[in-house]
Amino acid sequence: MEKIKSFALSKKGKTAVIISGVITALICAVMNVILIPKIEMSTNGIRCFDMNFGYSYETAKDFLAYLSESARNIYLNMQLPLDFIYPLAYCAFFCLIIIRLTKKANALLAFPLLLFVFDYAENITTIVILKSAELSESLAKLGSAFTSVKTILMYSVFLEILICFIYWLKNRKSAQ
């Protein structure tokens, strides 16, 4: 942990924050502006699995029924591969930001790391759902649960970073 902390606080760490932030923003933009709208054009208004705060078995079945073959290919061959890089980028970005704001590598990193794990679990489940011949209710519930936990963790990380930023600002003002 000490090596991670010293890297994050170094000049190279500052550069890594900027690079991981830019990569995160670019991937997010490509997915949300280009790929997801292309996928959702064929789903009769039903959002992609990971764009919801959970979903029902019926919604998942309807999504799959409306999903065109070309949209399924975009989802499997473009969106999801990019969505496996995205958690790496944002996890690095969030962890580095937290370390730079708090000057510590500690339990505060748990939320970004858990977010990373649940995003991967969600992506793997989505691949299984998209490749399944028939959707089981238990698989839909599992995917929905991963999506819900991921969403809660994402908001938790944002809140955590906001609190760290406020703490950093407070300390910076008192040091002046």
Short recap of the structure:
This protein is mainly α.
Using the alpha-carbon principal axes, give the shape.
elongated
Class from helix and strand fractions: mainly alpha
Mean pLDDT: 95
Order of helices and strands: HHHHHH
Distance between the termini: 30 Å
Low confidence ranges: none
User: How many distinct beta strands?
Assistant: 0
How big a fraction of the residues is strand?
A: under 5%
Helix content: over 70%
- CA gyration radius, whole angstroms: 19 Å
Number of helix segments?
Answer: 6
Largest sheet: none
What order do the helices and strands come in, and which of them pair?
Layout: H1 2-9, H2 11-40, H3 57-66, H4 69-102, H5 110-131, H6 137-175
